[in-house]
Design a protein that fits this description.
337 residues, mainly alpha, globular
């Protein structure tokens, strides 16, 4: 299907793809800035409870935004039964797709949370980052096109960087590792689902429903594993910041940006999260990078540049679509003559 091919948008508008990638990089920066904040918050509030309140704030913010922004549409819908039917069909389609995507997102967060109970944060970060490899490996099966060589080079660089930044020895496979690997599968599936659904849904509605699903799932996890459910007052600022900026705004931007960029670009850009996390840990907590971590950060940034800069040279060698069509029409007129 044409609108589901993430690379077609690059052919149509490379500038828009670059803007989308830049916004995704900004989202990654925001997520990186929350490492220190979330670390302190979950020391006061259990993780599933924290996720429940965080995603409740995020979804509530987006639903409020949705109500305010849809007033004119609701007035228009009330005037025509045909528009009402079309609106009902559109909302049902968006809701179904958002429910599926939200369940996958909750699965990713839940398995990551369970895995972190027994797995070191560095090791978990590396295993979670394996989604950088999973997305380009699965993308050809979903969208039916091959990855370019420069894309694979960028993916390998980003994976190597994650290894240097996060991997720890001695290595031994534990049950927690399997939970975190399931988390990597979940985040990879989420990126692919957003790529499939985002061109045909309203980003605001799609994101609000997704986040509400994660909120409900997190409440179930908190009631099952963390009773009584309590939120410490000291974590309220962290909840508000992560709920609004690192959740509602971040996932809304992702839903919009993946209309114009490929899932592989998204995965490689998201691999920069530990880099930004290390930068903010240095700025806010005085933590420093080792030489190995610095090399890893350089590899990740190199992988991102590989997927962003080399396509520019590809575009410069591709003739404009209008010129190709003009040549085809000219050839057709000559053969007709």
């Amino acid at each position: 299907m044409r609108q589901l091919d993430p690379d077609r948008s690059r052919t149509r508008n490379p500038l828009r793809e670059f803007q989308a990638d830049l916004l995704l990089l900004t989202v990654t920066l925001i997520w990186g800035s929350t490492f220190v904040i979330v670390k302190g918050a979950i020391a006061e509030t259990p993780p599933f409870t924290f996720l429940f309140v965080r995603f409740s704030v995020a979804s509530g913010f987006l639903f409020a935004w949705l109500v305010v922004s849809r007033r004119s549409r609701l007035r228009q819908v009330g005037r025509s039964s045909l528009i009402q039917d079309e609106e009902a069909i559109r909302q049902a389609r968006t809701t179904a797709r958002a429910l599926v995507t939200g369940l996958v997102l909750f699965f990713a967060y839940a398995t990551q949370t369970i895995g972190l109970l027994t797995v070191d944060a560095g090791k978990a970060a590396f295993i979670t980052g394996f989604s950088v490899v999973l997305v380009p490996a699965v993308t050809p099966l979903v969208f039916g096109h091959r990855q370019d060589v420069w894309v694979w080079v960028g993916v390998l660089l980003a994976t190597l960087g994650l290894f240097f930044m996060s991997f720890q020895l001695p290595f031994a496979v534990e049950w927690g590792d399997l939970w975190v690997m399931a988390c990597a599968l979940g985040f990879a599936a989420h990126i692919l689902l957003v790529a499939v659904f985002s061109p045909s849904v309203d980003p605001l509605e799609f994101t609000a429903i997704q986040l509400a699903v994660v909120s409900v799932g997190s409440l179930a996890g908190a009631l099952l594993l963390e009773r009584p459910v309590r939120v410490h007052l000291r974590t309220v600022p962290a909840i508000v910041f992560t709920g609004i900026f690192a959740t509602s705004v971040a996932f809304l931007v992702q839903a919009w940006a993946q209309r114009y960029t490929s899932p592989t670009h998204t995965a490689v850009i998201f691999s920069a999260e530990p880099v930004f996390g290390a930068v903010f840990a240095w700025l806010l907590a005085g933590e420093t990078l080792t030489l190995r971590e610095t090399v890893g950060a350089a590899c990740i940034l190199g992988g991102i540049l590989m997927t962003e800069v080399l396509p520019v040279f590809e575009f410069s060698r591709v003739r404009p679509i209008g010129a190709v069509r003009g040549e085809q029409e000219e050839d057709g007129s000559k053969s007709g003559a």
